[in-house]
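Reopening: UPF0175 family protein still failing for me.
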Amino acid sequence: MQSTIEIECPREILLGLHLDADQFAELVKEEAAMALFREGRLSSGMAANWLGIPRAHFLLKAMQTGGANLLEDNDDDFLREISLL
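Support: Ran it again with your exact input. Result attached.
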C-alpha cells in the first residue's frame, strides 16, 4: 500500500531551484531516502525500492553523492565482514 504526502512549497523555492513541482517532489523523495539511510533508519533495499532503482545503484549513489559510509573503519566492522568469509 502506498501513501501520498502533500507538502506546501512556496513558488519562490521552485523558481529559485528551476524545478517544477514533480521535479521538486522527486528531489525531496531522493534526499529523504538518502538521509534516512545515512541515519540507519531505512535499509538500502527499502530506500532503493522506494526510489524505484536497483539496490546497487542506490548504494553507489549513497557513497558518491550522499556522504554515506557503508563501512566504518573499526574493528567491529572488520570482524563482521571477515566472519562472512
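The chain has one domain: 11-83. If you still see a failure, please send the error message rather than a screenshot.
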